[in-house]
Amino acid sequence: MPCMPSKSSEPEKRILHIRVNIHLARKVVDGLDYEAFRDNHLVFYGVTRCLEIISEASRRLPDEMKARQPDIPWAEMAGAGNIYRHDYEDVQQRLVWGTVQRRFPALLAAVELELARLGPVAHTESKNGA
């Protein structure tokens, strides 16, 4: 994973962390159906780790940024991180799979909109980081 540029502001870093981990999780599951995902513990672990990072980064985004994207379940995303970290034995493959398949497209679109608002430097930094 690439280093995040030091000249970025904290919101830029966090939104870039979210983007990188969305792309990374998608890359990990690329070409897999649910059964292959479910039965591969390393893949499940890797995607769950991406979700932990996304969750933590989302907690650190400014409220005004989250307010511009009201269709994203920010509180649910932040709360999921607690489950991944503390109640890890209760994390279900089907829920993780569903998050990647159904929630990532809208989240990635919101991230790209926010990066566009931040300007061309933030938008292009680390775009191909995963």
Describe the structure.
The protein has 7 helices and no strands. It starts with 9 loop residues before the first helix and ends in a 6-residue tail after the last helix. The N terminus is likely disordered. It has 130 residues and is mostly helical. The chain is globular, with a radius of gyration of 14 Å.
Largest sheet data? none
List low-pLDDT spans: 1-7
Shape: globular
Helix and strand string, N-terminal first? HHHHHHH
Percentage of residues assigned to helices: over 70%
User: Structural class given helices, strands, pairing?
Assistant: mainly alpha
Number of strands: 0
Q: How many angstroms separate the termini?
A: 6 Å
The tally of helices reads 7
Q: Strand portion, in percent?
A: under 5%
Average pLDDT for all residues = 85
In short:
The chain has 130 residues and is mainly alpha-helical.
Name a few traits of the molecule.
7 helices, 72% helix, globular, disordered N terminus, mainly alpha, 130 residues
Chart the SSEs and their pairings:
Blueprint: H1 10-29, H2 34-39, H3 41-59, H4 63-67, H5 74-86, H6 93-118, H7 120-124
Helix pairs in contact: 1-3, 1-6, 3-5
